[in-house]
Amino acid sequence: MARQIVIDPVTRIEGHAKITIHLDDQGAVNAAYFHTTQFRGFEKFCEGRRFYEMPRLMPRICGICPVSHSIASAKACDAILAVRIPETAKKLRRVMNLAQVVQSHALSFFYLSAPDLLLGMDGDPAKRNLFGVIDSHPVLARDGIRLRQFGQQIIELLGGKRVHPGGVVPGGVEQPLAPEIRDKMLAMVAEPLNMIQRSLQWFKRAEESYREEMRTLANFPSLFLGLVGPEG
Amino acid sequence: MSRARLATVWLDGCSGCHMSLFDIDERMIDLTTKVDLVYSPLVDQKDFPEGVDIVLVEGAVSSEEDLHKIRLIRERSRVLVSLGDCAVTSNVPGMRNPFGTEAVLRRAFLETAALQAQIPTTVIPALLPRVRPVHEAVKVDVFVPGCPPSADTIFYTLTELLEGRMPDLAAMSRFGA
After folding, report:
1. How far is it, in rounded angstroms, from Cα B135 to Cα B70?
2. Is A41–B17 a contact, with Cβ atoms under 8 angstroms apart?
């Protein structure tokens, strides 16, 4: 008999969603859908507002990647103003964005996905989460927390706060990088670099036990393309 | 002392308040010794459980599903915390209210759509005519304004509640910041 499997909510992801899987009479998958269950209407309620509000309003699309939305809207504002922003401003925006890449990857891997790899995809659902990882793999969990913290601290140093920072404005950034802030950031880099190396080594070893999943899970021709340069 | 049962939920918000909770950094490790996280976007429990001691609610009440959820959450929780400006005032989600549901859906799904322009009518929760703050739907015990509230403010709120005290947030929070 035709049947539907519903996963609601999808947990340990960066957002709101549910999945429905539709089975045919033989129990084979007929169709599968990923539904985004949240809608706010930014497309409409931004209309008529002052353009320079956008680098502050757009980050509220997502508190996990607010820097992306701040920079994207600031770029649109740059275009409206028809200005080329100073090279220094471009670089400072980029540093902030890279800091976000660090914190968001740390979140995605250590807080959200790692429980599957560390505690098993069939592990006890009540333990298969960050709290379970803190309990069973305290060193790795602390690395994840510290790595995310590092990204968030860089964002805070450049934008005033960690979530929904300022800093990025139409035409560039709010202020130059003070030498003491620069030195502070440089001094912070060594520890996270070690954590990343440690985690990568662990991940490459762990990969071996998931060969079968890697071969079968979501392995199909698609229009997506991954690009990695010689420098990684 | 038995471990407190903590839940966190995101309704119509941006996850930013949850990120600010995670910004307590290594204090998260201490927290695992004091509470069981029984429901959260961070854990795999699908249904909101009975007998929750403290629930942190991020986001406004925006859809029929949010309304249904928050009523169930209230029924099953001892202390309900309205966490962040969206929960407290409806904030950014509430910005759609002057336009009405139909206009915002039309703008996003029809007028600006490059492909398959259609307004979803099934599976996705139907939007309420107006976005409301949490306390208009259910009784709220603690209000923590901020967009988002700082990690220190959230940690203070949690530790006070775990100690059985009502947190005094007058000096520790403000709207927007």
Report:
1. 10
2. no
CB A21 within 8 A of CB A4: yes
- Count of the separate structural domains present in chain B: 1
Q: What is the pTM of this model?
A: 0.94
- Domain-located, residue B111: no
Q: Tens digits of per-residue pLDDT, B16-66?
A: 999 999 999 999 999 999 999 999 999 999 999 999 999 999 999 999 999
Q: Is A3 on the interface with B (CB under 8 A)?
A: no
Scan residues 16-75 of A and list those with Cβ closer than 8 Å to B. Answer: 16, 18, 20, 33, 35-45, 47, 57, 59-64, 66
Mind giving me the DSSP string for A34-84?
A: EEE-----HHHHTTTS-GGGHHHHGGGG-SSSHHHHHHHHHHHHHHHHT-P
Closest residue of A to B99, CA-based? A45
Question: Nearest-CA distance from A98 to chain B in Å?
Answer: 17
B144 band by pLDDT with thresholds 50, 70 and 90: very high
Model confidence band, residue A132 (pLDDT cutoffs 50, 70, 90)? very high
CATH fold label, A41-206? Cytochrome-c3 Hydrogenase; chain B (1.10.645)
Q: Which amino acid is at A96?
A: M
